[in-house]
Please model this.
Amino acid sequence: MQKILIVEDEHDIAELIAFNLRRAGYEVIMAHDGIEGTVMAMRERPALIVLDLMLPGRDGYGVYRELRRDARTASTPVIMLTARAQTEDRIQGLETGADDYLTKPFSPKELMLRIRAILKRGDAPPGASEFTHGPFRFDKNALKFYVGTDSVDLTPTEFKLLLYLCERAGRPQERNHLLRTIWGYSDEAHSRTLDTHMKRLRQKLGAHHGSWIETVRGVGYRVATQAP
Ligand code: CA
Model:
């Protein structure tokens, strides 16, 4: 049974999420402030964390930064919860590296879909644990990524996204298709999510290799088949 940590100070929201997660077969642990959430994440090593931004003690960004700095939680997927009024928070949340965000009020069903989509990413088919394209090497079991011999830290979503594009190199992937496949979104309202992730991926690949990812105007993105 996969364990999910909810960090949320509003008890009724936390309980609603917990109820739905348990019904879907997940084990649930809860923390009600930022400090407790950080400690619990490192101790319990959950498969995924649902992290509210507005928290007493230490806010969601603070928690997130602590988690990424610690080897035990550095690659744990995080879904951030933001208030509707804080549109900028969403963008900032994604730029700090969260795998996804949901704006309150959200439907529990939507949250469940997102959680399932993210947790599914870790499943690598046996016997195909490595994939290489140009200078890029993906270790699908360990979720490790290398450019040449250098290890580059990617979040689980960045890893999935880049791998998906590399496995289909040369073929443009439509925005809607990527949003649906990587995040489980059913509409284009989350376009910004995709662009923010792409921007971050290019930055991580650096000046030398970022240009492997090509923007196809009016369509989406494509990874080059050979060195650009
Ligand atoms: Ca809150």
Observations:
- Residues 8-10, 52, 54-55 surround calcium ion (CB under 6 Å).
- Residues 191-209 form the longest helix (19 residues).
- DSSP finds eight helices and twelve strands in the chain.
- Residues 3-121 form a domain with the Rossmann fold fold (CATH 3.40.50.2300).
